[in-house]
Amino acid sequence: MKNINLKSALFFLLGISLATYFALFALQGVDPSFITAIKFLPQVVSIDVIVVSLFSSYAWKWFIFRGWLVPFPNLNGTWKGFINTTWVDPKTGERPASIPAMITVKQSFLNISVVMRTGEMTSRSCTADFILDKENQLCRLCYTYDSNPMQTVKDRSPNHCGTMLFDITGKKQKELEGEYWTGRKSTGNVKLSFWKRKLVDSYPTELGEHPVSAIRDNKS
Predict the structure, then answer these.
(1) Which letter, b or e, does each residue of 1-17 get, where b requires 16 or more Cβ atoms within 10 Å of its Cβ?
(2) Thinking of the domain 77-219, which architecture would CATH place it in?
(3) pLDDT (tens digit per residue) in 132-175
(4) Which of 33, 86, 182, 205 gets the highest tally of CB atoms within 10 A of its CB?
(5) pLDDT tens across 172-193, in order?
(6) Using an 8 Å Cβ cutoff, are 183 and 61 in contact?
């Protein structure tokens, strides 16, 4: 993950170190000098390690660091929306209606994983990363995934791998809009909005039934 602006991080860490040095000089009542700086080096390094640990565990999510120090958004939570696929149902000769879907994003300072769920399948990311290019106004999430449909639909929807590419848009970056490609030569568009910070670990029926399943159920 492109997890930090290196130049800003170096200045930030230097500022923390200098502030620590001056605080130690003041507390010990000594004048700044090379000898006393060497003497206080272990304490300064220890405080730097604590600050870095706290930052990478918690503080990276704070809005104050967004952009100048942390280049990527915090996508943690559950997102919901719809998939529009180019797949054609062989029984109807038509594309299905929009498919209700949700994703859960689990993100730390160093890693990110994505799980997508619909009424028929669950897919999990294998690799994921941000594509960031400020000059070209790009802020994207790209990941490869392994999709595992329910056993009852595998006759028409077998296991497959694919790639998802989202543009991160909207006010406060609360919209995901993109497209996917799969190993079974299907493609489609996905549009999602942020729903809640909690990670929902099963597909909620309130989001709606998969349209192909709905057609099959009505005919049975």
Answers:
(1) eebbbeeebeebeeebb
(2) Beta Barrel (2.40)
(3) 998 888 999 999 999 999 998 998 889 999 999 999 998 889 99
(4) 182
(5) 899 999 999 999 889 999 999 9
(6) no
Burial 88-101 (b: 16+ CB within 10 A, else e): eeeeeeeebeebbb
Q: Is the dihedral of CA 58, 64, 66, 69 positive or negative?
A: negative
pTM greater than 0.85 (yes/no): yes
Please give the single-letter amino acid code of residue 36. Answer: T
Decide: 64 and 186 in contact? Cβ < 8 Å.
Answer: no
124/210 Cα distance (integer angstroms): 19
Q: Widest CA span of the chain, in angstroms?
A: 86
The domain segmentation of the chain, as residue ranges, is 6-65, 77-219
Q: How far is CA 7 from the centre of its chain?
A: 24
DSSP bridge pairs for 144: 127, 163
Cβ 54 vs Cβ 38: under 8 Å: no
The residue type at 139? C
The whole-angstrom separation of Cα 11 and Cα 69 is 10
Strand boundaries in 27-137, DSSP class E: 77-85, 99-107, 112-117, 121-133
With residue 10 as reference, give the H or E element that holds it: helix 6-28
Dihedral (Cα; 39, 44, 49, 55), 10-degree rounding? 180
